[in-house]
C-alpha cells in the first residue's frame, strides 16, 4: 500500500501538467472605491461623502468612483449587496455608510465589502456629537482604510506648519485634510522645526529672541511659551522622545555642535555625542532606544544612528555626499531624509541598515520631512521660485500633492503623532 | 506596341481570324455582360437592410435575473392580460443587448479563431483535447501564458507598501470557458491585505482566453506573485 502511494506521488508531477505563471508587481495602484452614504439629511450626507472620498483619495491607496457609474441605489445595497453589480463596474472596495441624526449626535453605521471576494470585511457603529461631523467622517475613512489595507488610518490627525510673512512667522494648525486652519501662535521672530509632544498638547520649537536662538515649549491649549534651552550658541532641532519624557536637540555651548537630551521632569540636559564635528538633527526610533542624526565627521553630512546613551554609532547613509534632515518612521523600519540626486534636492527613505533607498520627490529646495502617524505618508516643504509650499506624498512613491496654497510661504510641517 | 516588336508568334494577324473566333469572342462578351447585369438585378431586388439601432446598457445582476425569470412567460403574457407587470416594460429595449440577433452580420466582429474557446468547448473530452492539443506549438502555448500573465499583472492592485514574509503562491483552477473555478492561496504572503489583492487580481482579469484544444494544460495552474520590496 505504501509503495503504491509512493509510486502515485512520483507519477503525480508527470501526470499533472499545471501551467505556471509568474506575476511581477509593476508599481502601486489605488483600489477603486465605491462609497454609498445614506442619510435623511442631504447636507450631512454630501459632507460626509466628500470628506471620506477626499481622505481616501488623498492617501493614493484608493480612488473614489463616480456615483453615476453605480448600478444599485444605496437603499437597494443596504437591503442586499449584489457583488456582481459592483464587480462589473470594477469596484474593488464597496463602503456603505448609514448616517442618522439622533438626540445625542450623529450615528453612523459602516460596512466595508470586497466585491471580488464576495465578502463583508467589517462592520462598525460610530457616534459623534453634532458639532463633530467632520471627525466622524474621518473616523469612517479610518475604518474603511484599516478594513481593506490592514493598516491604521491617519485621517483624524493634524498638521502644524510655519507661515512666514516678512520678518515674522506664524504657527498654523490644520486637520490633515487642510480643513480647520487656525493660527495658533503668531509673530515669532523666526520659527523653526516644530515637533508635537506625543500627547498632542505641547509643541517643542526653535525660535529666536533678538538674535539668539532658543528652544521653547509652546502650549497648544493656552498659547503659553516656556523656554527650556537657552544656551550660548546654537539651540536647535528639538524632537520629543516617543514616551514624551525627553527632548533630543542640538546645542553648541561647549564650542562643538553636539546632540543633547533634555529630561523634562528633572529639567536637566545631558550631552550624548562628543565628537568635534557637527552633530545635529536628532530623531528617535519609535521604541525610544536609538537616535539617528546627521554628522559631518567624515567630511560630508551623512546620517548615523546610535543608542540613546550615545554608544554604538553606526553610519546609515553611504551613497552621495549630502544626506540630511533624518526623521525616523513611526513603523521603525525606515528613515526619511533629504538628499541630492542628479544635482537636485530629493526626498528619500532608507532602511535603518542603510539599504534600499527610495527616492520619492525632487525639487529645488526640499526640507523638513514628517511622517503620518501610520508611517504611510510623508509631508515636506519644497520651494519653487522663493515660495515654499508643503506637499504630501505616499511613503511608497506616488505623486506629490500640495497641501498649502501658493500665495503663502509655508514650511516646517509637523504631523501629529496620532 | 510597335510592329517591329511583334514579329513573334504572339502577334495575331487580323486576317487569320476566322468567323468562329469572332463569334466566340462576341459570345464571351455577352456572357460577361449578362452576368454583370444579372448580379446587378439580383442586388437591386434584395431589399436594403434597414439600419438598426442597438441600445446597450449595463443593468444590475438583480434586474438581469428578473428579466431572465420573466422571459419564458413572455409569449403567454399576451394571452394573459391580467399579468401586465410594469417592470417587464424595459424588456424589449434591453433584450438586444443580451440576445444576439442571429441573422445579422457584424462586420466588426473578430474573425473566429480555431483556438478560441467557445461554449462547445465544454463538451470536449480531456483525452481528445490532449491529442489535438499537440498541434499547438510551444510558441503558441507561451503566447497564451504571456497573455494570462499580462492580464493578471494589469489587474493586480497593490494599494500600499506592506510588510510581507514571502512571495505568495496561488493555485488556480480554470473552466474551459476561461472562467475561474477555484482560487486557493497555497503559500500566504503573511499579509492578509496582500493575499486579498491576489484574489482580486485574478477575479478581475478573468475570464481568460484559453486554447480550446489544449485546455487541459490550463485546468490546474499555479501563480507565483512577486510583490515589490
The geometry of chain A reads as: globular
Distance between the termini of chain A: 63 Å
| Radius of gyration of chain A using CA atoms only | 25 Å
N to C succession of SSEs of chain B: HHHHHHEEHE
Which protein chains make the most extensive interface, counting residues with beta carbons within 8 Å of the other chain's beta carbons?
A-B, 44 and 40 residues
Number of contiguous helices of chain A: 5
For the secondary structure, the number of strands of chain B is 3
Helix content of chain A: 10-25%
Poorly predicted runs of chain A = 8-16
How are strands sequenced across the largest beta sheet of chain A?
Answer: 12-11-10-9-8-7-29
Give me the number of helical elements of chain B: 7
- Overall average residue pLDDT of chain A: 93
User: Helical residue percent of chain B?
Assistant: 25-40%
Low-confidence sequence ranges of chain B: 1-7, 74-103, 112-133
Please give the alpha-carbon distance between the first and last residues of chain B: 78 Å
Largest sheet of chain A: 7 strands, antiparallel
Tell me the fraction of residues in β-strands of chain A, as a range: over 45%
What characteristics describe this protein?
heterodimer, A: 418 residues, mainly beta, 7-stranded antiparallel β-sheet, B: 229 residues, mainly alpha, 3-stranded antiparallel β-sheet, 7 helices, disordered N terminus
